[in-house]
Specification:
about 220 residues, mainly alpha, Methane Monooxygenase Hydroxylase, Chain G, domain 1, elongated
Length: about 220
């Protein structure tokens, strides 16, 4: 009976992590929307979500530590709880990067974009999918989703390089684009970092399921 109660608590913990991930994904979407539309009201919502994510991080962390202290988890359970702790840390940091994007929105308030931000929106869509797949791989203990995350990261990196080169060309040809161009590059960099955190979650899920550490160099290999 005690084991069933413990497993129920683990399921509830996983649901809370999933809810936190949904909120983190929402913050990415809203942050990029605020930047593309130069919408300060939407940017404010991201700041509010960042505080919610921080509180969720603390709450879930406490529940994880309580489970370790009050129960007698076996090695497999400890890996699951440890993975929860790693995931919420990454999700909190993702929220902070979304907040950074919203701060970039404030920095360009009153200005007009000198180019369409198609690549940045594509990066945002990819990172949201990566975060979703990362947490789904945890919920379902499905490491096949981790392969998709690593594949998407390569696309995110390629888009970042594309944005960097294109914006740099604009800035060299027209110095008036420099202030905006710097913000474009920063936002792309923040999205690239979000993708890195999604990969970190995926790596931890592999460890949770297989009990083996996945080194950075092994991402392209068979999991």
């Amino acid at each position: 009976m005690a084991r069933k109660a413990f497993e129920k608590e683990l399921d509830e913990l996983a649901n809370e992590v999933a809810n936190m991930a949904k909120l983190a994904s929402q913050s990415i979407t809203l942050a990029v929307k605020s930047f593309v539309d130069i919408d300060l009201e939407t940017a404010k919502k991201v700041f509010e979500i960042d505080m919610q994510l921080y509180k969720m991080d603390l709450d879930i962390e406490k529940k994880c530590l309580d489970l370790i202290a009050l129960q007698t988890p076996v090695a497999r359970d400890l890996r699951t709880i440890g993975t929860c702790l790693k995931i919420i840390t990454n999700l909190d940091r993702i929220g902070r990067y979304a907040k950074d994007i919203s701060e970039a929105t404030a920095n360009i308030s009153g200005k007009t974009h000198f180019k369409k931000l198609v690549s940045i929106q594509m990066m945002a869509n990819l990172t949201v999918n990566m975060v979703s797949n990362a947490v789904q791989s945890f919920i379902e203990r499905d490491i096949s989703l981790v392969k998709k995350i690593f594949s998407d990261e390569e696309n995110v990196d390629a888009l970042y390089e594309e944005i960097f080169r294109e914006v740099l060309t604009y800035m060299i040809e027209d110095p008036k684009t420099i202030s905006l161009g710097i913000q474009y590059i920063l936002v792309a960099r923040y999205l690239e970092r979000i993708a890195d955190h999604a990969c970190s979650i995926g790596e931890r899920v592999v460890y949770m399921v297989k009990g083996e550490r996945l080194h950075l160099k092994m991402r392209s290999r068979t999991i």
